[in-house]
Design brief:
Layout (H helix, E strand, L loop, with lengths): L14 H5 L6 H13 L1 H9 L14 E3 L8 E3 L5 E2 L1 H12 L6 E6 L6 E5 H17 L7 E5 L4 H13 L2 E4 L6 H11 L3 E5 L2 E3 L2 E3 L1 H12 L9 E5 L1 H6 L17 E3 H6 L10 E2 L3 E7 L7 E6 H15 L7 E4 L6 H13 L3 E5 L10 H9 L3 E4 L1 H8 L4 H4 L8 E5 L5 H11 L6 E4 L33 E4 L5 E2 L3 E7 L9 E2 L3 H8 L7 E9 L5 E6 L3 E4 L2 E4 H9 L4 E11 L3 E10 L7 H14 L8 E4 L13 H8 L15 H8 L6
Helix pairs in contact: 2-3, 4-5, 5-6, 7-8, 11-12, 14-16
The structure holds 5'-O-[(S)-ethoxy(hydroxy)phosphoryl]adenosine.
Organism: Oryzias melastigma (Marine medaka)
Family: Belongs to the ATP-dependent AMP-binding enzyme family.
Keywords: ATP-binding, Ligase, Lipid metabolism, Nucleotide-binding
């Protein structure tokens, strides 16, 4: 890697940012990067020194086997150390750093009239109260707690309360269906579910308690449901509508199982001694789509995740004490875990926590919030940028965005047009855009620019973060040097990488380590250009990325196939102006069934109900037959080209019946 002197147009860091930056230029980046690979022990030890360890480590900073041919895959960080995540992100600031009065979160509700300010001291007290409530409900170290909450402060309280008592949280994004929630509760075998009565998302009122009850009922269909207690935040009834009298929801209630949050917290003590955990004790499970359709419980542990989220946050957003940081993701995704909760709090940062949606009650809501809280660092997804671009510059011009210094994106490749708009219109040409590539599995950023150090190329996630060693392999597992395109893999672990798939080490090893022994396989394609910049080209497995949300073809296909009229379904993605990709579904109907608009609506609803609104298909096409190989494997490549109307299909010799393709092309325009 050399200091980029490229023929491409580079966007260089602004001088004023470089002046007081943690990593002020590209040479410093290279120097630190080299050290992090040559002496990881010293590098990570220095990072660990900032935190509180009840007992120091007896083992090295990192121990691992990354080579499946040599035995089981494992990663361990700081063996022998005892610590507590919650203590490090809260008590340490309040007790040792005198930051009790500092604002941890500016909570901004769905409606601009609802907002709260939460200091570190307040956060600590509320987390302790919640921890005591969970203990009273019988939750012990190692127990799983499922959390199905919208973006409200109680979501943060609950996750940190789990961390405090050593319980393992499993947060399920509150846009998921009861079916998805049930599946995740059953896999984790959680003993407690924390949810809310309801929430407004924009103008839509969602009855979360009803969805939760449906999920628990489904869980109980085959075996007794593991959840014995359900804690319900009275959010809609009390907070959003100013009193129960305005409560528009019928909140179903089970006297034996359910408990209102307010009542439970009222007499709960504000002190709670943290549970001192082993460095490798689990911190949380977060489910992510798997190519078989069954979600994978990605497991992250304590010490390594703390070091990694904390360090990436500090460097990638060049965090300073007086920053106001806003990440618009939902805590239900990994971005929210790492860069709303743990990373920022580990740094003692002040963040905005936003419950609502970008265009409610008006299309300038994001910009209004940036002005209101004087946001300095802003982190969002390409899909949000593309959606807001549609409204032009006018909505931004009404607000003062001059406090912004750094912009970030995550979730999917950002097209250069959206990058330029973000840079020019939102950042007024002044703010570097950090395009951060990472995954639920990686725990934190792995390819990313550093804002004051890295010359940017729009659309490239640029270079590896400290301690991360990427490489590109061809189909045969051979490493490609220089300019190249192939599979993105990593040669060694960093502290924040996942440790296993919950209850399935076998799936962990086969998904990430079997294809190319010695490497962690991301599942993403990648190109390295002549200047050494990395460009993510998208998923190369059977995964789809819609609005930055990953889902598997199998998951959507299974939902469609559950409809009585469908005999077979195949799902591919096609480009979408706002969402990046959208779903184009091919369905083969049972003999007697007719393809019509009513059926299309039913199928769309079916997918929405089974998985959640984010998975709603944009197109459903009737497919009298699907293109298959002679061995019966659906050729998704061909379907993808049909969906995209690309007529140059290349080699079709492996197809069992090439005529199928013509038929599908001719009927493409009827997709609805
Ligand atoms: C994609 C989200 C290009 C990628 C943090 C990855 C990206 C998947 C980027 C993980 C980026 C994420 N550029 N693609 N900056 N960031 N991706 O687990 O395909 O929800 O494998 O984690 O999103 O999605 P996940």
């Amino acid at each position: 890697m050399v200091v980029p002197e490229s023929k491409d147009k580079l966007f260089h860091p602004p001088d004023d940012l470089q002046r007081d930056a943690h990593v002020p230029d590209f040479n410093s980046y290279l120097e630190i990067y080299r050290k992090s690979l040559e002496d990881p022990e010293a590098f990570w030890k220095e990072v660990a020194d900032e935190f509180y360890w009840k007992k120091p480590a007896t083992g090295p900073m990192l121990q691992y086997n990354f080579d499946i041919t040599k035995g089981n895959i494992y990663i361990k960080c700081m063996e022998g150390a005892k610590t507590n995540m919650c203590y490090n992100v809260l008590d340490r600031h309040v007790k040792d750093r005198n930051l009790g009065e500092k604002v941890a979160f500016h909570w901004e509700g769905n409606s601009p009239e609802h907002h709260l300010t939460i200091t570190y001291q307040q956060l600590l007290s509320r987390v302790c109260r919640c921890a005591n409530v969970l203990k009273k409900m019988g939750v012990k170290k190692g127990d799983r707690v499922s959390i199905y909450l919208p973006m409200i402060p109680e979501l943060i309280y609950t996750m940190l309360a789990c961390a405090r008592i050593g319980a393992v949280h499993s947060i399920v994004f509150a846009g998921f269906s009861s079916e998805s929630l049930c599946e995740r509760i059953m896999d984790a075998q959680s003993s407690v579910l924390v949810t809310a009565d309801g929430v407004y998302r924009g103008e839509k009122l969602i009855n979360l308690k009803q969805i939760s009850d449906d999920a628990l009922e489904k869980c109980g269909e085959k075996a007794p449901c593991s959840v014995t207690k359900c804690l319900v935040v009275n959010h809609h009834a009390v907070r959003t509508k100013g009193g129960t009298s305005c409560n528009k929801l019928q909140t179903p209630w089970d006297m034996k199982r359910d408990m209102w949050w307010d009542e439970a917290m009222a007499d709960s003590p504000e002190e709670c001694e943290p549970e001192w955990l082993d460095a490798e004790d689990p911190l949380f499970i977060l489910y992510t789509s798997g190519s078989t359709g069954k979600p994978k419980g990605v497991l992250h542990t304590t010490a390594g995740y703390l070091l990694y989220t904390s360090l990436t946050f500090k460097y990638v957003f060049d965090h300073h004490h007086d920053d106001v940081y806003w990440c618009t993701a939902d805590v239900g995704w990994i971005t929210g875990h790492s860069y709303i909760t743990y990373g920022p709090l580990a740094n003692g940062a002040t963040s905005v926590l936003f419950e609502g949606v970008p265009v409610y009650p008006h299309i300038g809501r994001f910009w209004e919030i940036i002005e209101k809280y004087r946001v300095t660092k802003f982190y969002t997804a390409p899909t949000a940028i593309r959606m807001l671009m549609k409204y032009g510059q006018e909505p931004l011009q009404k607000f003062d965005l001059s406090t912004l210094r750094i912009l970030g994106t995550v979730g999917e490749p950002i097209n250069p047009e959206a990058w330029q708009w973000y840079h020019e219109v939102v950042g007024q040409g002044r703010c570097p855009v950090v395009d951060t590539f990472w995954q639920t599995e990686t725990g934190g950023h792995v390819l990313t620019p550093l804002p004051a150090a890295t010359p940017l190329k729009p659309g490239s996630a640029t270079f590896p973060f400290f301690g991360v060693e990427p490489t590109i392999l061809n189909e045969h597992g051979e490493e490609l040097e220089g300019e190249a395109e192939g599979y993105l893999v990593f040669r060694r672990p960093w502290p924040g990488i996942m440790r296993t798939v919950y209850k399935s080490q076998e799936r962990f090893e086969s998904t990430y380590f079997r294809k190319f022994p010695g490497f962690y396989v991301t599942g993403d394609g990648c190109r390295r250009d002549k200047d050494g910049y990395y460009w993510i080209t998208g998923r190369i497995d059977d995964m789809l990325n819609v609005s930055g949300h990953l889902m598997s073809t199998a998951e959507v296909e299974a939902a469609l196939a559950q409809h009585p009229a469908v005999s077979e379904a195949a799902v591919v993605s096609r480009p979408h102006k706002v969402k990046g990709e959208c779903l184009h579904c091919f369905v083969t109907l049972k003999d007697t069934k007719e393809f019509n608009q009513k059926l299309v609506e039913e199928l769309k609803k079916q997918v929405r109900d089974r998985i959640g609104p984010i998975a709603t298909p944009d197109f459903i096409q009737n497919a009298p037959a699907l293109p298959k190989t002679r061995s019966g494997k659906i050729m998704r490549r061909v379907l993808r080209q049909i969906a995209r109307n690309e007529t140059d299909l290349g080699d079709l010799s492996t197809l069992a019946d090439p005529k199928v393709v013509e038929v599908l092309f001719s009927q493409r325009s009827e997709a609805a």
